[in-house]
């Protein structure tokens, strides 16, 4: 069954590529959609403890967070589950909000770490990730609640090891002020491939 579905995906993709030879921006599928270090271990993504800092609650990001976790949780054929950690140190995804200013250039940011707190890159395996919401910048740029949810889905997508998609893709992983309020077909299919 799985093999058949993958075959169908491949055929559709190659057809698309034939039709759009002028475009260099094919969308990223399967392993190409993920950071090469594969982020947090699969076994963690299957049952992932998260921690919501008081700042995320105070700045209004609890609803966006729970909506985001729910949207990833219900993806068919992807074993993604979250539960509230009893402590910050137990959590593998840790969420904060603040006004980080405009000069940082981001509305949201995902920072991977090793267990001792040192920084990791997309090429490494990770122990935990910090997600930062730049509420101040979003406010100043008049983000709608759809824009904020897109931003939350995008950062949690990084925490699930998804890399940026090409600008042509319909995906929560394209960069910019998006309005998708749930993972797109492409995101779901990539996450089902990985998890
Ligand atoms: Zn990003």
TrEMBL record:
GO terms for molecular function: metallopeptidase activity. Residues 1-26 form the signal peptide. SUPFAM superfamilies: Metalloproteases ('zincins'), catalytic domain. Keywords: Signal. The keyword Protein biosynthesis does not apply. The keyword rRNA-binding does not apply. This is Matrixin. It comes from Tumebacillus permanentifrigoris.
């Amino acid at each position: 069954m799985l093999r058949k579905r993958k075959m169908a995906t491949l055929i559709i993709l190659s057809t698309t590529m034939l039709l759009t030879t002028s475009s260099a921006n094919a969308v990223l599928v399967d392993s190409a959609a993920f950071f090469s270090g594969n982020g947090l271990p699969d076994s963690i993504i299957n049952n992932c403890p998260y921690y919501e800092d008081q700042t995320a609650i105070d700045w209004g990001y609890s609803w966006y967070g729970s909506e985001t976790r729910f949207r990833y949780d219900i993806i068919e054929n992807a074993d993604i589950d979250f539960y509230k950690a009893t402590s910050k140190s137990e959590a593998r995804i840790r969420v904060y909000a603040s006004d980080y200013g405009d000069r940082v250039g981001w509305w949201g940011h995902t920072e991977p770490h090793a267990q001792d707190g040192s920084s990791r890159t997309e090429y490494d395996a990770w122990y935990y990730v910090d997600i930062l919401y730049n509420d101040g910048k979003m406010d100043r740029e008049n983000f709608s609640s759809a824009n904020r949810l897109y931003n939350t889905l995008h950062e949690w997508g990084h925490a699930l090891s998804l890399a940026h998609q090409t600008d042509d893709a319909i995906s929560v992983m394209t960069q910019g002020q998006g309005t998708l309020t749930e993972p797109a077909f492409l995101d779901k299919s990539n996450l089902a491939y990985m998890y």
